[in-house]
Amino acid sequence: MRRSTLxxxxxxxxxxxxxxxxxxxxxxxxxNDGDVNSMDPYARQETFLLSFMGNIYEPLVRRNRxxxxxxxxxxxxxxxxxxxxxxxxxxxxxxxxxxxxTADDVVFSIARARGPGSNIAGNFASVKEARVVDxxxxxxxxxxxxxxxxxxxxxxxxxxxxxxxxxxxxxSADLTTRExxxxxxxxxxxxxxxxxxxxxxxxxxxxxxxxxxDRPEHNLTRVEFNVISNDAxxxxxxxxxxxxxxxxxxxxxxxxxxxxxxxxxHQQAEMRTIYLGxxxxxxxxxxxxxxxxxxxxxxxxxxxxxxxxxxxxIVRTVMRGQARPTGLMIGPGINGHTEALDQxxxxxxxxxxxxxxxxxxxxxxGVTMDCPNxxxxxxxxxxxxxxxxxxxxxxxxxxxxxxRARYFAEILGPRYNxxxxxxxxxxxxxxxxxxxxxxxxxxxxxxxxxxxxxWSNARFDELVGQMAxxxxxxxxxxxxxxxxxxxxxxxxxxxxxxxxxxxxARNNIQLQQLADNWFPLRFVRVGx
Length: 528
Known about the structure:
19 strands, alpha+beta, nine-stranded mixed sheet, four-stranded antiparallel sheet, about 30% helix
C-alpha cells in the first residue's frame, strides 16, 4: 500500500509540474505560403520581409496600433534647421549580445541601407549625411527640406556595427543575384524577439528578447514560423490546431473558416495596390515574338491592354469580392488619394482591338508575363485571368509564375529582366510621393528603383521633386493630382485592385491586424 500511495503521489507531482510548465509556455505557431527570403533587414523592399525582421531589428521611430508614428530607439527628435533631423537615442538599449546601442550603430546602419546590395536605399534618397553628435545623438542632414522624412524611416531597423564587422556583413547581400553573407541567415538586433534557428523555406524560430528595453505586451515564450505553400494544407493545419494563425488566407476559404468552430477571421482593406507594368525602355522586348520594336512603347497598345482587363470580374471571381477595383496606383488611406480621380477604365474589348490595329498589331502579338505565385493574394490566379482576357484581343501571353525569391531576382534591378509583370506596393509613408518616387519616377540613382518597366515623363519627374519639399498642403495636393492625371493618361502602369487583408487565427489568439499588412509579434497573446 505504501508503494502504491507513493507511486500515485509521484505521478501526481509529475503531472502538476508538467501542467505548470505547460501553462507557462506560450508557443505561437503561424504559417504563410512563402518564406522570409533573408534575415537581412535591408535585403528587399517587401512588406513581409520588413515586417518579419521588424520583430528583431527596430527603427528609430516606429508605428503604433493606429499606424501613428511614435518613438522607437529614438526617445525624441527635433529639427535644429530645416534640413537637419536630430535623434536622441534611448540610453538603456542593448543588442541581444549585450552591447549597447550607440549613435555609431545608427550612422553605420544608414550607410549600409544606402550602400551596395541594399534594396531600401530609396528610403534615404534625400539624405546627404548622417553623423554622430555624441554617443546617444545622431544628426541626419538632407539635401533639401523633407517634411516626411520621419515617416520614410519607420520600417528601417538599426543594426550593430560591431556584429556586422565581426561577421563580414558590413554590406547587404544582393538578393537579385542570389548573393548571401552572414546576415542572410543570421540576425542580432535590439527588438522584442531574437532569432533562435533558421531553416530557409521551412521554419524560422524566434524567442523573446529578455533584455528588451520596452514593456512587453505579448506573452509569448516561443514563436515558430512555418512555410506551407499549399493552400489546402495550410488551412488544414489551422483547423487541426497544428498552427495557431495563417497570414495568407485564400479568398475561397474565407467563408468556410468563418463558420469553423474555434477559428476567427481577421480582415480589413489593405493599403497595397496590385498592378501590372510593361517594359517601355528597351527598343525590343526581351520576351516577345515582336522583333525590331517594342509594342509597349506605343500608348495605344497600353490603352488596349487597359481596356481589355475586366477588373470587376477579377474581383468577383478570382478575389471572391475581397478586393476593390482601382484606376490609381494609390488607394484609400494614402494621402493624395481622391475618389474623383480613381476612375476604373471601362472594360471594352472592342475598343482594345481597334487600338491594337491602329498601333499596327491587328493580329496581336506574343509576350511573356512574369508573375509571383506566393506573394500576393491569389497572385497567379489573377495573372491567369489577365492572360485569358488579353487572349480575347489577340495578345498571346505566356505565363511565367514562380516563387517570390526567384521572381524578384528576375524582374527587379539592376537587370529588370521582364517585359510584362505584376507587382504590389504599399507606400510605407502612407503618402502618394512614396509610390510616385519609387514606382513611377524615371530611374536615376535611388529614384525609380522599382520602376521596373522604365516609364518616364519629364513633367511627372518635376512634380515628384517639387512635392517632396512642398509644405503648403493645397499646392502639394494640386501637384499630386496633376501627377496622377499624367500617369493615367499615359497608362504608365495598369492598376488592378487593392486587396483585402485576410488572416485567420484560433480563438485563443489575440493579435493586431494593421492596414499595411505588417504583423508585429509584440502585440500577440496566447490565451488558454
